[in-house]
């Protein structure tokens, strides 16, 4: 299959995270059978690298309790702080080149990733990465951008267009742009990124989060980034809307909410060509990739037309509110209370 000019074995990708921050972690994700692997992000800022020293992670159960270390469940939410890879660029390029070479022998592209700080610096880093990897993901949707000065989250059309234009001008390999989920119009951001030269669009980054612990403090002792299976419909909203607005020729990569094969399939049905998974691997290890790939392939084998016909298939039956006919028995009746009045 082809996604934004990348030939990949399957639509289950491993997203950028601490798991893809070391040679061993990158190799483990490749060897698990991922369609592609996105390396941990870098940028030009020493402060962004130092931020990793204050990283913290809380897996939150359905009743909003924090799980003890090592006892996370696949359905839990994750509230965390994080930072960027702690490596000089030259050293990191060597890691990327080795990982990309390993991935190439297994049909698994390894992408470099840049979390935006300064667009000009991002362009220089992307240009250097182009000698080591087959594609670059530019993350302009990092939720930590609302709290950390060393990274930025762009939510305005003009800023997105300009940042993508600058980075695009520096590279001639595929450029994927990852957008935030918290913006007034994510579709407009996607259109701006595409017009500025993005080959593919990632939808969507995790959300800012905060959770009081009810003992006079807050989980993590700070604000953080939040993702969970409950975010899946929110992510799929923007995937579906972007697919409708930009059309099937714009490759979309889904992220934020996929923990199971069914979740991956829902992203595909909403219009994504590939899906990045992270937290499920943190909880159950890289072997989760093989589980997800097998589940997706088994389902698609039952569908006429396979993957190509399935991508975006859920949108065919959707209608705007104004086009939905009245229901014969109003659905709100059970919600009037016991009196029925």
Describe it.
With 341 residues, this protein is α/β, with parallel strands linked by helices. The chain has eleven helices and 14 strands. It has an eight-stranded parallel β-barrel with strand order 3-4-7-8-9-10-13-14, surrounded by eight helices. Strand 1 and strand 2 (6-7) form a beta hairpin. The longest helix has 16 residues, at 89-104.
Distance between the termini: 56 Å
Q: Which regions have little confidence, pLDDT < 50, spanning 5+ residues?
A: none
The number of E-state strands comes to 14
Class from secondary-structure proportions: alpha/beta
Largest sheet: 8 strands, parallel, barrel
Instruction: Report the C-alpha radius of gyration, rounded.
Output: 20 Å
Tally of individual helices: 11
Order of helices and strands: EEEHEHEEHEHEHEHEEEHEHEHHH
Percent strand: 15-25%
Average pLDDT works out at 95
| Apparent shape | globular
The spatial strand order of the largest sheet comes to 3-4-7-8-9-10-13-14
Helix content: 25-40%
List keywords for this structure.
15% strand; 341 residues; alpha/beta; 11 helices; 14 strands; 8-stranded parallel β-barrel
Quickly describe the structure.
33% of the residues lie in helices and 15% in strands. With 341 residues, it is α/β, with parallel strands linked by helices.
How are the SSEs placed, and which strands pair?
Layout: E1 2-3, E2 6-7, E3 12-14, H1 23-31, E4 36-38, H2 46-50, E5 56-60, E6 77-81, H3 89-104, E7 110-115, H4 119-129, E8 136-139, H5 157-168, E9 175-178, H6 186-195, E10 200-203, E11 207-209, E12 224-227, H7 232-246, E13 252-254, H8 261-270, E14 274-277, H9 279-284, H10 288-300, H11 306-310
Parallel strand pairs: 3-4, 3-14, 4-7, 7-8, 8-9, 9-10, 10-13, 13-14
Antiparallel strand pairs: 1-2, 5-6, 6-12, 11-12
Helix pairs in contact: 1-3, 4-5, 5-6, 6-7, 7-8, 8-10
